[in-house]
Amino acid sequence: MATPRDIRRLAFQTLFQLDARGEADAAAIEASLSNAADFTDAERRRAFELAREAFGARAAADAEFVGLAPTWPAHRQPAVDRAILRLAHFEMVSGRVAPKIAVNEAVELSKEFGTERSPGFVNGLLDKVLKRVQGAEAEASNGVA
């Protein structure tokens, strides 16, 4: 049985492929997940759905990141970092996981797949998103609209 971290790693790899190949190849990308032998069919579907939803929400993630780091818009980011950031952003704003967990998991992915600068870059951007998300959660719990 795959852990949530394993499923997230497969979702990141899938999101990376969606970004590189485009949504028109989504069926082929999903079919390629059958090569992920350590996963059940349900786990592969979960990873693909997470990647597909994060890919669908990429415009919102990219817009927030360009506001936070205007000199590093999505097209200037390394593809690995971009996929990690988009996945974490989606997890944070969709409420799929606790925002702090999403940040931690993204940093771990960046250590595994990115450059030596990736963890700092990913952590710095996601920390700013974390503060915004936590602020919004605090306002909502206080009844502030």
Keywords, separated by commas or semicolons:
145 residues; globular; N-utilizing Substance Protein B Homolog, Chain A; mainly alpha; 0% strand
Q: Quick one: how many beta strands? A: 0
Distance between the termini: 42 Å
Percent strand equals under 5%
- Helix proportion of residues, in percent? over 70%
Mean pLDDT: 93
Fourth-tier CATH superfamily name:
NusB-like
Largest sheet: none
CATH class designation: Mainly Alpha
Q: Which residues form runs of ≥5 with pLDDT under 50?
A: none
Q: What is the H-and-E element order?
A: HHHHHHH
Q: What is the CATH-assigned architecture?
A: Orthogonal Bundle
Shape: globular
Tally the structural domains. Answer: 1
Task: Please compute the radius of gyration using only Cα atoms.
Answer: 15 Å
Continuous helix count: 7
